[in-house]
Design a protein that fits this description.
The protein is α/β, with parallel strands linked by helices and 428 residues long. The chain contains 14 helices and 13 strands. The radius of gyration is 22 Å and the shape is globular.
Length: 428
């Protein structure tokens, strides 16, 4: 209803293939993810009618006549959480025999209302993240799906992308409606995005958080801790330097819960395999925001500052350059998009004492996995692969492949069998 949510020149994404596969047999699919990642445009490509439930007028119309959603057309309920009864309405329609692809729902906030049916078995959920590198115009030559076969495919390809290109991609973001804007406008849009999260979106969740400024300081400290397993207590201290008064544990828990429900936080869990003989594993998540550009905006950085090594306080959480953490976050975002296409999950690996750690573990449904290190350098040394070799020795055939993802320009396999892949050359 109103202006269409369809993009003028829609570019297919990795998630489109997943969505089409699900809609071939499922009557209802809910696309979930942070605001601005492109859920609505993706869904709008597949429907006959759109209901934008952020609009009070549209909500009034649907409440007055819910039957207009059930006339057999393919329907999009955009931001359904603004009219929560529509979730149960769709669930009941599915039980009554709705046809495949009849309902698409999008949501920028997960709901945890007691008493509402989860939709399990009726409404399938599909995560949409910001654009992966292969969705930003780069041509991949290495497929994650092929790496996950365990066949050790040949690795080749070249790319002109270098450190400056990846830095520009980090700053530009993976939000389709923001990344192509002029730099000044883009920065303003990212700032506005974060202001809306703190001032409006949190309130719409019904959260008890009443201090947006304190929340934004905490978000900035969380962004500074990108790609680390820093404790939440240390993040809280960094958010309020020079004061003895710290937010209560209840307040900090409310911050995390609300921001995760809005999909702004996207932490990477620790890998805890069930079929591998590994002991003393750390379960703490690695901290990531939905898009590394949000961390850049929260800390007031830009491309020049990042390339010059400016960290704006992020060094309290790490020894290396903040740009390295942001590059790891960009790679993690892309790998999660590709892994989801292969029905795989992504985690990180770390021993309790930190003796051995691997940035990314991509685990298939059967528990076998791929291990990946992320390096800001274009050159990979024996020292860089020591943890991968250690893990290969421990897991044997359970480890399908081992790779290093870099800022280099050439993809190849090292004599020890480890694949070296520039980030721009990896795709689904």
């Amino acid at each position: 209803m109103g202006d269409s949510l369809r993009a003028v020149n829609y570019q297919r994404r990795v998630v489109d293939t997943e969505l089409d596969e699900l809609l071939a047999g499922a009557a209802a699919v809910a696309l979930e993810g942070a605001k601005g990642v492109g859920k609505s445009a993706t869904a709008a490509e597949r429907v006959d009618a759109e209901f934008r439930l952020e609009s009070p007028t549209v909500r009034d119309l649907v409440e007055a006549d819910p039957g207009r959603l059930l006339d057999g057309r393919r329907v999009l309920l955009d931001e359904w959480q603004h009219l929560p009864f529509t979730w149960d309405l769709v669930r009941r329609a599915v039980d009554a025999g709705a046809t495949p692809g009849q309902f698409l729902l999008t949501g920028s906030a997960s709901r945890t209302d007691p008493g509402r049916h989860s939709g399990a078995g009726r409404i399938l959920k599909l995560r949409v993240r910001p654009l992966a590198l292969s969705e930003r115009g780069y041509e991949p030559s290495v497929s994650l799906a092929e790496l996950l076969t365990g066949q050790r495919p040949a690795i080749a390809g070249d790319t002109p992308a270098d450190l400056t290109v990846y830095t520009a991609e980090i700053v530009a973001s993976g939000f389709p409606g923001i990344r192509e804007l002029p730099a000044r406008i883009r920065r303003a849009q990212l700032d506005s995005y974060l202001e809306r999260v703190a001032d409006r979106d949190i309130a719409e969740l019904g959260s008890s958080i009443r201090n947006p400024s304190a929340l934004k300081r905490w978000m900035g400290a969380y962004g500074a801790a990108t790609a680390t397993t820093t404790t939440y207590a240390k993040i809280a201290t960094a958010a309020n330097p020079g004061t003895r008064e710290q937010p209560s544990r209840t307040t900090l828990t409310a911050y995390r819960d609300a921001l995760e429900r809005l999909f702004i936080l996207d932490p990477l869990p620790g890998w805890l395999p069930t079929n591998a003989h590994l002991n003393e594993l750390a379960a703490s998540p690695k901290h990531h925001l939905a898009d590394p550009a949000l961390a850049v905006a929260l800390l007031g950085l830009d491309e020049d500052a990042l390339l010059a090594g400016d960290d704006r306080g992020a060094s309290i959480f790490r020894n290396g350059p903040f740009l390295g953490a942001l590059f790891e976050s960009l790679v993690a975002l892309s790998v999660r998009v590709y892994a989801q296409r292969s029905e795989a999950r992504v985690a990180h690996f770390r021993m309790h004492r930190g003796d051995h750690e691997v940035d990314l573990i991509v685990e298939r449904r059967d528990g076998r996995c791929l291990a990946a290190e992320v390096k800001l350098s274009p050159i990979v040394t024996d020292h860089d692969v020591r943890h991968l070799i250690w893990l290969t020795d421990r897991l044997g055939p359970e480890l399908l492949d081992a790779v290093v993802i870099t800022t280099g320009t050439h993809a190849y396999r090292r004599p020890d069998g480890i694949a070296v892949i520039p980030a721009a050359l990896l795709g689904p």
